[in-house]
Amino acid sequence: MRLLTVICLLAGLAVAPVARAEDGHDLWLRYRPVEASAGYAPAAIAPVADTPTLKVARAELERGLAGLIGAPSAQADRVILIGTPESSPAIARLTLPLKAAGDEGYLIRTVTVDGKTTTVIAGNRDVGALYGVFRYLSLIQTRQPVDNLNISDAPKVKLRMLNHWDNLDRTVERGYAGQSVWDWWKLPDYSADPRYVDYARANASIGINGTVLNNVNAKALSLTAPYIAKAGALADVFRPYGIKVYLSARFSSPIEIGGLKTADPRDPAVKAFWKAKADEIYKVIPDFGGFLVKANSEGQPGPQDYGATHVDGANMLADAVGPHGGVVIWRAFVYSHEQPDDRAKQGYSEFKPFDGQFRDNVVIQVKNGAIDFQPREPFHPLFGAMPKTNLGMEFQITKEYLGFATHLVYLGPLYEETLRSDTMAHGKGSTVAKVVDGSLDGRKLTVMAGVANIGADRNWSGSQFDQANWYVFGRLAWDPEASTRDIAADWARMTFSNDKRFVAPVVDMMMGSRETVVDYMTPLGLHHQMGRSHHYGPGPWVSGGERADWTSVYYAKAGPDGLGFDRTATGSNAVAQYAPPVGACFADLKCVDEKDLLWFHHLSWDYRLKSGQTLWDGLVTHYSRGVSAVDAMGRTWAGMAPYVDAERHGQVTDFLAIQKHEAQWWRDASVAWFQSFSKRPLPAGEAPPPHSLEYYEGLSFPYAPGI
């Protein structure tokens, strides 16, 4: 039996000096000393069972308390007891109400054991206890009382996953935080890189239990024996933290690495290839999660290449991994240039007819909106439309269309707006969140996935505030109905400071930042106004040989008669893909929210908004409001210097300066282009763009500040 480890909460510790330089590597797990006035009582950690997960749970608790509280002491009167009824006789004797915790939930309760005040952190399985440890430490990090606890929590979504778009050469598609965190060249022989453990700790702290290691635009090489071994080495590191690994599978792998002449999912030889490949993977990774597949989208191979369907392809793979307990996550992102109809309709059109035909271990992973991770999109019409199919949510954590790593945009409000949208599939209250957590239609295999923003940069995500998007994604994957304002406050406290003079203005800034980027990029329901190739700066024109069916010209539908994409019955009729009450509202100018106005309607430049402004005047006002809001963010952050170390404060300051300059670029270029159609003067007090439209058309990515 290991000796009792005692961690004392010393009452006299001084506040950590703000001047200490930090680079952001510790994320929200900083564990800096609490203030002397916090008044936490001493505690001791009881021995735990000798299992991999309980050992890392204990190590995390020791680490956290040592950083927050100080040096160990043998004089503690309080005890922290970690484990499960199976692993701990002391916990078993307490007969705690753990049924509701399920496999991954936990209970934190203050009880008396052998005359001592004891904080019990228990789960039905070891991973639940680990999640409970992180929750307990977060209470101290955010200065919540821990003297008399009775907390019970469990995840509402079964598979809470990161999707890494990491390539085998360590580049990251749509990644803005350096190279891939996976050092493929050194794996599998060297898996002791401490970043792998830190990655697992960070994910476990927010309940993420799965990671797809490679890009959805996959290479067949990732399924060969050497790369399976590399994935296996990472799986060994992540396993104690409750994290399974998954792989993106290239559909044409039977041809490219299997020596076959076809990848037709109906072909017996193809089925045999995938069964053998699954068997090979599970021999190396017994708890392998399964495959993520992008098929027949943006040139990727798929079953339609052979006249087969998404059902044929997904079910064939599901049959290969099913005997091992694996799942197939099949993406509904199926854009194709060859489709003549509204591209917002394609995913629904291809998948809705197959409702109820997919295997039980198949999940159709649907992006939050029907276009592509825009600053704002109405919820995807597939949510609520496939009650007999497992539907998963795909959010993007990396900011492909929202200013990469240099624009401060907290994505919590975007996620929350989508999850709280009402599909009306079974009447009022049929929210997207209830589709995702399975409660709307009684689905058990549920998924929320986020396209990761993680790279080899020391701060993981390319900027300090982009860490918040990783954090809020994990918290919402655990509970899709949580408040993103509350989550932002927790993150700000754990990452920077608990001082209310810091927390209140910074949380307000974060909560407004998404609307700010919508204003200066895509106001009033505009979408995909970014340059086609880079998705960074404004590109509201066709240049460089770009196809008009893939550019912002296609989506804006700007002309002398007005602006916006008609998706009502007089246009593409995309509104018909929603439940009738929802579609009717989107189609009705008296009902549709103006934030979605130009997504569904093509309107005259002189159309009157609810503010009384014309569409043209309101459009310009939104663009300028976005620029002003970025300026205000800069002033807010400047006032936070006393509460943040100079290194992190300086980086955020520099990035806000870039954002301000580029918000102005967005405003000026967009106004110049739209004015070439509207021919209207600018509203009173609005400054004209300082350059001609031709000047903005000539700019190319990257547009360096100061040009």
Report on this structure.
The chain is an alpha/beta fold and 707 residues long. 34% of the residues lie in helices and 10% in strands. The chain is built from 20 helices and 14 strands. It has helices at residues 52-69, 89-93, 126-141, 194-205, 225-238, 253-256, 268-284, 310-321, 346-351, 412-419, 432-436, 467-478, 484-495, 500-521, 552-556, 580-587, 597-600, 615-638, 646-678, 693-698, and strands spanning 5-7, 43-45, 78-83, 106-113, 116-122, 150-153, 159-163, 210-212, 244-248, 290-293, 327-331, 362-367, 391-396, 447-451. The strands form two sheets. Strands 7-8-9-10-11-12-13-14 form an eight-stranded parallel β-barrel. Strands 1-2-3-5-4-6 form a six-stranded mixed beta sheet. β8 (210-212), α5 and β9 form a beta-alpha-beta unit. α1 (52-69) packs parallel to α3 (126-141) and α12 crosses α13. The model is unreliable at 1-19 and 542-550 (pLDDT under 50).
Topology (SSEs and partners):
Blueprint: E1 5-7, E2 43-45, H1 52-69, E3 78-83, H2 89-93, E4 106-113, E5 116-122, H3 126-141, E6 150-153, E7 159-163, H4 194-205, E8 210-212, H5 225-238, E9 244-248, H6 253-256, H7 268-284, E10 290-293, H8 310-321, E11 327-331, H9 346-351, E12 362-367, E13 391-396, H10 412-419, H11 432-436, E14 447-451, H12 467-478, H13 484-495, H14 500-521, H15 552-556, H16 580-587, H17 597-600, H18 615-638, H19 646-678, H20 693-698
Parallel strand pairs: 2-3, 3-5, 7-8, 7-14, 8-9, 9-10, 10-11, 11-12, 12-13, 13-14
Antiparallel strand pairs: 1-2, 4-5, 4-6
